[in-house]
Amino acid sequence: MIEGIFSLELLFSALRMSVPLAFASLGGVYSERGGVVNIALEGIMLMGAFGAVVGTYFTNNPWIGLLVAMLFGLIIALIHAVVSITFRINQIISGTALNMMATGLTTFLSRLIFQAAGSSPHIEGMTQWQFPGTSFKISPLIVIMILAVILSQIIIFKTRYGLRLRACGENPYAADSLGIDVIKIRYSGVIMSGILGGLGGAYLSLEHARVFVEGMTTGRGFIALAGMIFGRWTPVGSFSACFLFGLAEALRMRLEGFGIPTQFIQMIPYLVTMGVLIGVVGRAVAPAYDGIPFEK
Amino acid sequence: MSEEFILETEGITKHFPGVLANDDVSIQIREGEIHSIIGENGAGKTTLMNIIYGIFRPDRGKIFYKGREVEINNPSTAISLGIGMVHQHFMLVPPFTVWENIILGREVLKRGVLDKDSVSEDLNKLMSDYRLSVPLEEKIEDLPVGICQKVELIKLLYRGAEVFILDEPTALLVPQEIEELFEILNNLKRQGKTIIFISHKLKEVLRISDRITVMRRGKVVGVLERDEADEEILARLMIGKTIEPPRIEIHERGEEILRLEDIKLSPRLKGINLKLYRGEILGLAGVEGNGQRELLEVITGLLAPDSGKVFYKDKEIERLDPRSVREIGIGFIPEDRQMTGLILDFSVAENIILGRHYKEPYTVNGRLNVPVIRDIANKIVNTYDIRTSSIDKYVRFLSGGNQQKVILGRELWSNPELLIASQPTRGLDIGATEMIHNILLSARKNGMAIILHSSDLDEIISLSDRIAVIYNGEIVSELSPKGIDETILGLYMTGARRD
User: Fold this and answer.
1) Pick from A54, A45, A40: which is nearest to A110 by CA?
2) What's the CATH code, domain A2-119+139-280?
3) Of B93, B94, B112, the CB nearest to A159
């Protein structure tokens, strides 16, 4: 039994499970490094999952679906930015409201468009990329995710934009005194979280399930935030944490059917999340002005 | 406009709701001079500088730079003209390295990423040109304030500043760091830079300035050459009357009231022994972060020591919680009045009963006794001359001096036998400071024992009967304030000397 659970296939499964989390987590890094807490990631992912299916359903082109997913994620993020940056409303309240809105909106639109309650019709996923000379196939989104993680690590820690983004999260008043447009930079961070969170949602519906199910993110936006904290607000760290969560989820799937009540097994990813967070409490330090509106 | 002046203002006027912060202010700054602008809190000097630096817009008035009228709408414009400002609270990003802080907003790139090598080269040259050195690779959060200030200066040099505005630059420095700062400023002056030095410390102003502009209540009330000025003249111009140094009557100290025995608390306190007697003020001097805060929090019950004993009137109290410590007659003025001393969005009356709110007569049968509370609050407001329109006003809207008087009134009203006063006059103007000093001195005269912790060494020397210097978690010396000056105290505070 043990050999059946732990194998190379388990690691690939973990990688696949970690894709939506890693995208969203990366989005969280951009947003919070700039100083905006974005718990709307859950809603952003859900909108992304829905957008991907809608785009693919009408065009039969999953790449267009991907674009629509990013657009839908972006819309939610933009509302969050306007509310919390421009109008300086509490970021948790804004995020909570947007999460509720996304649940309602996707359910309503899904029933309107697909004329069915619960879920959409099945759709075609993306063509898998084949490794040259092997029979090994991989989703393009996995490749994009890994590239995004590496690129983000460089952007955030080695470029002008990254330096300014981090400055806005650590001490926006210092950034402002040096002529940096704090509002613009913070908007850009939140917008990035919308695009990346949308991609994360798209993987869920487009690649994982090949269907949109109402409320299908089931808290993954929050798990992604936990991954971001565990990864200390760095892209590579966040990805590693999400991989760990992915592993927990892969294990969960494998353990089903071994006679343990499924309700307990389904708790595994969430228990791992809580355990990990308890382990890092106090050691992970958030950007100093994370969650604090900037007011001149 | 004359060519001789690099920076001039003409008739600057600025209103804030209810306050005329700048009233027709005209100043002239010569190229290559160190020009001090002095005045009490609220005299309008910081407002004026914020206008010159583009943070505020004036209601009226003009600014001339190098003989040309300029419009400065934001700090970027000021920087590009060549005007730079070091704020009282540093504008640095703590987790960033020194070089990241310096280049922020003016980054040098190579193939899209930050070009650290060429930046270090430029900065090393800049540092050797101006004989100013800072560790480029260290993080700001690991560096002492003196170095952070140098980083701020290099930041301005890197941006090509010609005029340096320094707002209260010595407020957080120890004497040796102040010496170093003055050397740097004189050095910058020799290289042709112009310096505007904002301060209310007259001794320093007299040492460093070529010329001095004095402001009072939003107006310029005098411009003096260094040679025409002395402390008395400046003080009279600044506050419109002469100040008397606090007069301390000599009297015998009473019996022992507090005894600390080998207090240890990792990592800050390494074995503190100290005694305190009735009717004396013990000054506690030290550079911030050497354990003084922890020490005071151990006495007040906020922290429990790892080992060691605290005896108050021969009873052990080191395990008592803060409420019990207050109940046995110890009062506490915490160093951060806004964070720990007060609840800013509570009214004056509510703040006045805090800490005793649960006792009679404030609370009867579990309910607040509002008429009694209001009555006592009004009495305290009158006794300590707290300027507020009503006891129902949120303390947030009181001035710093009046906020401090709320705390002082609250702590003294219950007649403690021991008062721990941490930074009681930090950031207050001369008038409020004088009043608080008088309150402390009269409490001492009535037999109260006081521990006075302050970063203002003048204050420690002039008020204390005895001075204890803390360095690296130990009391390195107990000194008599007679015949001692800030330099000697500074040597003990920085660990250069110990007994």
Assistant:
1) A54
2) 1.10.3470.10
3) B112
